[in-house]
Amino acid sequence: MPKKPIEYDEKKSHYIAATAIIMKKGKYLIAKRASWEKSFPNLWTVPGGKLETKDYINTPKSTNSPQWYNIIERLLQREVSEEVGLKIKNIRYLCDLVFLRPDRIPVVTFSMYADWAGGRVVLEDSLTDYAWVTTKEAKKYELIDGIWEELEMLDKILSGKKVTKWQKK
Description:
single chain; seven-stranded mixed sheet; 8-oxo-dGTP diphosphatase
């Protein structure tokens, strides 16, 4: 008996996004989202964005099978370059989260951290301001809920403490 073809399942579909906490000289880059952004308008965050097929479709596959590896890193390098004009290196995983946008589209976000590798900040239109801050200084900004805890989590990791998961303070 032939198998029924797999159909698109809206319950399993998500946008995939990644953000990068960029480290430079003991500080982290944060940026303010524009007022017209669908999610989190006028709030401060770290650079990042959604995965697009262009992040992999026209590149050689990583194996003989139809798959690509290291796509989140490629996504972050593209998004950081587009959003804030910087180059990054040493990209590492911090945590992940899921949220529903105002239009009810679910988004899976991989929060990563990386070292600044060059360039100066040049903001794209979706961002209106930026600052290099310590975790303590970040408290003065209206951050997207959870970002401050990510910065604190990263501080602990960088100081050699074992951190197992994100926790709300």
